[in-house]
Amino acid sequence: MTVAALASHFSCSRIMVMKHLETLSRAGLVLSEKDGRSRHLFFNIVPIQQVYDRWTDQYSQFWASRVVDLKASVESAQQAKESRRA
Amino acid sequence: MPKAVSVEQLGATKAKFQVQIDGPIEAVWKEITRTDAPIAAFFNSQMHVGAFQPGSKLAMRSPDGKYTGVVGEILEFDPPTVFAHTFKFTNYDDPACVVRYELEACDGGTLFTLTISDLPTGTKTAKQMLQGGVMICGTLKAVIETGSPSAGTKLLFTLFKVMAPMTPKKCRSEHWPVD
């Protein structure tokens, strides 16, 4: 995704979006690559995984995963019910 | 709350993964280009190459050499900073994508970047590549910094070994020569 495409999703100015991107880049969460006149952005998931690994163990991973699955399952069932009503 | 959308759902044809490794660039380069032993960061597969030069064939085989999971052709080889090759899973009929490893000496360590491009969207290849990037970075970091992969990764390698007999016949190494 280019910076311009990303900025189009927000009501704030492009300068403001660039400032947020700068912070995310410093944290290693956003990587960018120049392609001609545009700059493409990539989400770097590795730092998130590192934080996850640091703060979880195999037991909490298992239960956290189950809870997330439960949330997804209940919410998708609810959404399906609502869309049938509509 | 906005619904989360995965990178795969976005239909991206390119992805990047980056990690800072506390180790010299030469050590990282040696690890990702070694042919004398399985490479933990590459799912414990052993690299076989005709020669380390553009145009040469490459294969990632099981440690016992019986099965070949990935084949490709070397596109760039510039020690110790750039190694790129095409990447095709032997068990899928999907088109090949391109992997590019870039290494940069940085802050007393190495900044390792993996770029995957030409991802065939909506395929099993794309899904596996996007999932695998994180593991490659994490395992490479662990191997360079501690000397071995995490316990969980070692467990996964044991599982691969146990599951090896279930590998499809078309992945047998005799079908994928590199010479």
Task: Please tell me about this protein's structure.
The complex is a heterodimer of chains A (86) and B (179). Chain A has 2 domains: 3-44, Arc Repressor Mutant, subunit A; 56-85. In chain A, 65% of the residues lie in helices and 14% in strands. The mean pLDDT of chain A is 87. Chain A is flat, with a radius of gyration of 19 Å. By secondary structure, chain A is an alpha+beta fold. A two-stranded antiparallel ribbon of chain A has the order 1-2. Chain B is built from 3 helices and 7 strands. Chain B has helices at 25-32, 124-146, 151-163, and strands at 15-21, 46-49, 57-61, 68-78, 82-89, 97-106, 109-117. The radius of gyration of chain B is 16 Å and the shape is globular. In chain B, a hairpin with a 3-residue loop joins strand 4 (68-78) and strand 5. The longest helix of chain B has 23 residues, at 124-146. Helices cover 25% and strands 30% of the residues of chain B. Mean pLDDT of chain B is 91; it is low at 1-5. Chain B has a 7-stranded antiparallel sheet with strand order 1-7-6-5-4-3-2, covered by helices on one side.
Structure in a nutshell:
With 86 residues, chain A is of the alpha+beta class.
Task: Summarize the topology.
The complex is a heterodimer of chains A (86) and B (179).
Chain A: H1 3-7, H2 14-26, E1 30-35, E2 38-43, H3 46-55, H4 58-85
Chain B: E1 15-21, H1 25-32, E2 46-49, E3 57-61, E4 68-78, E5 82-89, E6 97-106, E7 109-117, H2 124-146, H3 151-163
Antiparallel strand pairs in B: 1-7, 2-3, 3-4, 4-5, 5-6, 6-7
